[in-house]
Amino acid sequence: MSNEPAIGTRAICKACGERIVFVSPYWDHVGEMKPRHIAQPQAEAPPDLLAAVAAELARARSQHAPLHSAHEAYAVILEELDEVWSEVRTKVIDRTRLRKELIQLAAMAVRAVEDLGL
Length: 118
Ligand SMILES: [Zn+2]
Fold this sequence. Notes:
By secondary structure, the protein is mainly alpha-helical. The protein has helices spanning 47-63, 70-88, 95-115; strands at residues 10-12, 19-22, 27-29.
């Protein structure tokens, strides 16, 4: 089957969050402890969500200089996380705003990896 993953492909189990590996024709949990449920890979993040993170990253790049150090990256990420917290602690969470803040947080984490050459 052509859309089957390659043998040895790693993923995260949808049921338990543990690491799993593809051992054709099925997925198996990695390691000695085998849960009693069937290993099933989590769906990947939907393309529109990753596109939103990429768009936010491009917007941030157009407005701010690259991150120069791990300390600077931490400060920027913490600022974004504080904005998430501001939304989370409201009595009625605005899901659209929370999504926007989380996408900004994700974009800054990606930016840190890129700018610091990690
Ligand atoms: Zn599992």
